[in-house]
Design a protein that fits this description.
The chain is mainly beta. The protein has a single domain, classed as Immunoglobulins (Immunoglobulin-like, Sandwich), CATH 2.60.40.10. Helix content is 8%, strand content 34%. The strands form 3 sheets. Strands 2, 3, 6, 9 and 11 form a 5-stranded mixed beta sheet that branches. It is elongated. Mean pLDDT is 80; it is low at 1-28.
Length: 148
């Protein structure tokens, strides 16, 4: 027997169910949760750079990233602005702001390249777990060697 649509059947219920199933799904079918936070170094806000959360291999999810604002805050994005990160374990990485190259006219000694005060800093806690619901992270940076 084939499917027969009856007047008054729950087509709207199907649409609602489909909408709920799709809500929160990120790339690869992984559920996402909102993630915001603050990056600090020596107890002070970090004033630039990028935060990246790389999901563990078993999540089959997309990397989430966000720009660190001048007050140290960030909001992570996977596919659409502010959608967060996949629920589960992630490796945390930090990239300092791009180096500023001073203008040089080619005469005399080249001016020194400005180095970010956050160069060489890495997250103290290299892994975080993103849980269902809103996540508010504090990422503390310490001196260390870059993560692979």
């Amino acid at each position: 027997m084939g499917y027969r649509h009856k007047a008054g059947s729950s087509a709207s219920g199907f649409v609602l169910t489909l909408t709920l199933l799709l809500a929160g799904c990120g790339s690869g079918g992984a559920n996402t949760a909102p993630v915001k936070g603050k990056v600090t170094a020596n107890g002070q806000p970090v004033t630039g750079g990028e935060i990246t959360l790389t999901p563990s291999q078993d999540l089959n999810a997309t990397i989430a990233g966000g720009t660190v604002a001048s007050d140290g805050t960030f909001v992570l994005t996977t596919e659409t602005e502010g959608d967060g990160a996949a629920i589960g374990m992630h490796t945390v990485s930090y990239s300092p702001p791009a180096l500023e190259q001073p203008e040089w006219d080619g005469y005399g000694a080249a001016p020194a390249t400005k180095v970010s005060p956050f160069e060489g800093l890495v997250p103290k806690q290299p892994e975080v777990e993103i849980k269902p619901g809103a996540n508010d992270l504090t990422i503390e940076l310490v001196k260390g060697r870059p993560q692979p």
